[in-house]
What we know:
By secondary structure, the chain is an alpha/beta fold. It has 2 domains: 29-118, Rossmann fold (3-Layer(aba) Sandwich); 144-288, NAD(P)-binding Rossmann-like Domain (Rossmann fold, 3-Layer(aba) Sandwich). The chain is built from 11 helices and 11 strands. It has helices at 9-30, 47-61, 76-87, 107-113, 125-132, 144-156, 172-175, 178-191, 208-212, 269-272, 286-305; strands at 4-5, 35-41, 64-70, 94-97, 166-170, 198-202, 217-221, 238-241, 245-251, 259-264, 278-280. Strands 1-11-8-7-5-6 form a 6-stranded parallel beta sheet. Strand 2, helix 2 and strand 3 (64-70) form a beta-alpha-beta unit.
Amino acid sequence: METRILQGARIQERIFAEVRTKINDSIQESGKGPGIVFLGFEGVPLNKYSMPLHVKVAADSGFRVASHLLPEEITFQELNNLIGKYNEDSETNAIVILQPVPGHINPILLENLIKPEKEVEGFHPQNMLGSMVPELCINPYPMCLPEALKEIFNDEGVKIRKDDEWLFVLDDGFFTNPLTQMIVRTAASKVVPKDSPVTFINKESGHLQKYLKIADFLVVVSKHPCYIQPEWLKPGVTIIDIYSNLVKEIPSKQDPSKMVPVIRGGVNTETVKGIASNILPVPGGLMTVVLAILLRNAVKAFEREQ
C-alpha cells in the first residue's frame, strides 16, 4: 500500500499569500494594519523555537508583533494584568497563548481572560461553544485545528465516509487537562460526521490496541515520541499526528554554530509507510496549516474593527 505523506507547506504558503495581500492592501488604502501579540512560557522547551517562528511569520506577513516569553512561576494575576492591557489596546487585534501553560495556571480561565473577538484560535470557552453550536452565531472565526484539517483533506482529496471509525488517543496528562479535553472534543465535533463512531481513549488503556485495529482515522496527541507501533494499526488508516515533541537539538547543517530542533510526534512516519493510507506527520503536517489559519483569523479580527 502506498502511504501519502500530507505536508501542509503548500497550503500554508497559499494562505500566507492571501494574508500578505490583505494586509498590504489595507496599509495602502488606510495606512493601518493588524497587530498581534504572542504569549509563551519559559518552562516549555520548544517555545524557544516556536515563539521566534510565530513572531517571524507574523512580521513577514505585515503584522505589528509583540511577544512575551514569560517566567514559569508567573501568577494568574500578573497574566490577568498583561492580557488586560492588550485587551484594551486598540492596536492589538489578536492575542495568542502558546500552549501548554504552567501547571499552576488553569488554561481555560487563562483563555477566558482574552476578549472573545481577540482570541483567534478558537480556544476561548465562548468561541468553543460557538464552534459546537454554530446556530448561536457567536463565533467570530473558525476554530483553527478543524479548519486546517478540512483545508488539507479538501486539497488532498481525502474522503471521510459516514461509517468510518474515529479514534482519538491522548496521554493521561491531556485527559486531565480541561482545555485539551475541550479542544479535542470541540474539534472532533467539527470534522467527524455525526453518524460516525468516535472514541476517545487514554494512551495507557489496556484496550488501546483493540481500538487501534478498527480505527479508520487515528488522531494522536502524545508527549511520548513515536509511541504508536505499526503492528497495532489497521491497514489503510489515516493518521493525524498533532503534538510536537522536542527530542533533541543538533547543529545546523548550514551553520554548525547554531542549534536546530529535532521534533517528533506520537507516530514514527517511516514505520507506518505501507500500512497507513495517509499521514499528517509531525513536523510539517496539520500544525503547519494551523499557524496559517491563525494569521488569517487575526486579519479577520482586524477587519472587524475597521
